[in-house]
Design goal:
By secondary structure, the protein is an all-alpha fold. It has helices at about 1-25, 30-60, 80-110, 115-145, 150-165, 180-185, 220-225, 235-260, 265-275, 280-285, 295-310, 315-320, 325-354, and strands at about 200, 230-235. The radius of gyration is 22 Å and the shape is globular.
């Protein structure tokens, strides 16, 4: 069993190394066309992995599918595993879209140049993968030992959905974020960007770089007053801190959501990873359009509501709909997403005619 985990992690690390070390080695502003192309690549990889999931669980390769799923008590064959993997992937992908709103706000607040946004997202998502891996391991262990915790997850998802539907939530001032304030207290932060560096030392060549190629020089009193060799963070580092912090917040919603679908750690982890890997390209593809989808948040709230109710009523749904009831959950999630996008487009066209 451990071999398949090591092989999958090695594959992910290889893809990340190719992404940053080969295809995006030079900092540049990612165009919508390039982002759409990479989005297609990551989505294709995520969907293609479902083929491996089918044969691996059908043939019980590496011990996959040998034990009953803690959530529904069923042994995952090929078809059942694919249903759960795709449902988890689509739910996680949908919830990650909400993250784009916050990332866009963070980049706007810190005035992160488009040239360096990909770098922030790369390291932010790498940190998110590690964090979610830890949370998934802990969650799987808790569910295996205390099955009743699923009902707590369900209640949390339902409350979160109702909050999204009926309460307005503001993102606030990132400078008031407790993690950002602690970071500023522990480390001096430069007044301007220093190339693509997150960290510079006073008195080095890196600390003397211009803010953005072609931009006018801006005085940086923090660097000027610091003793030579002092470790300094740049505003790019603060943006990264905020991206990591917001992912922790979103993971609190998304991890229970995936455990509502399956308790199989491999399906939970792989669906999460493929959903997150495409977040960078999805951001650049949708950041300029995401505000147009006014009913997207409503769709996401309804998805959380459906997933939470599914967790509470899993036994009853299995009796009424049969062993493939997860397929109906998958179709419901797709229908909610499609309805949200369609309603947004129709509303925009109607307002445009007004």
């Amino acid at each position: 069993m451990i071999m398949i985990w090591l092989a999958f992690i090695a594959f992910v690390l290889l893809m990340l190394a190719l992404d940053l070390g080969v295809f995006h080695r030079k900092a540049h502003a990612v165009s919508v066309r390039e982002a759409m192309g990479w989005s297609a690549v990551w989505i294709s990889l995520g969907l293609a992995f479902a083929v491996f999931v089918y044969f691996a669980y059908e043939g019980h390769w590496f011990g996959l599918g040998a034990l009953a799923d803690p959530v529904d008590g069923l042994v995952n064959g090929g078809a059942a595993a694919v249903e759960k993997y795709l449902t988890g992937y689509i739910v996680e992908k949908s919830l990650s879209v909400d993250n784009i709103f916050v990332i866009a706000m963070i980049f706007g607040f810190f005035s992160v140049p488009p040239l360096y946004q990909h770098r922030v997202l790369f390291w932010g998502i790498l940190g998110a993968l590690v964090l979610r891996g830890v949370m998934i391991v802990l969650g799987a262990k808790l569910i295996a030992e205390f099955h009743w915790i699923l009902y707590l997850f369900a209640a949390f998802l339902i409350l979160t959905a109702l909050k999204m539907l009926f309460l307005k939530s503001g993102h606030g001032d990132p400078n008031q974020n407790a993690v950002v304030r602690l970071t500023r207290r522990l480390f001096p932060v430069t007044a301007r960007f220093h190339g693509e560096h997150f960290v510079v030392r006073a008195g080095t060549s890196a600390s003397l770089e211009s803010e953005v190629p072609g931009a006018a020089a801006v005085a940086d009193d923090v660097v000027a007053k610091a003793k030579p060799g002092t470790l300094l963070l740049t505003p790019l580092a603060l943006a990264l801190v905020m991206v990591e912090t917001t992912d922790v917040i979103f993971a609190v919603d998304s991890i229970p959501a995936i455990f509502a679908i399956t308790g199989d750690p491999f399906l939970v982890f792989t669906s999460n990873v493929f959903a997150i890997l495409g977040l960078r390209s999805l951001y650049f593809a949708l950041a300029g359009m995401v505000e147009k989808f006014r009913y997207l948040k409503v769709s996401l709230a309804l998805i959380l509501l459906v997933v939470g109710l599914k967790m509470l009523a899993a036994g009853w749904l299995k009796q009424v709909l049969g062993k493939s009831f997860n397929l109906y959950v998958l179709l419901t999630v797709l229908a909610i997403l499609a309805a949200g996008v369609a309603a947004s487009v129709i509303a925009d066209r109607r307002d445009g005619r007004a």
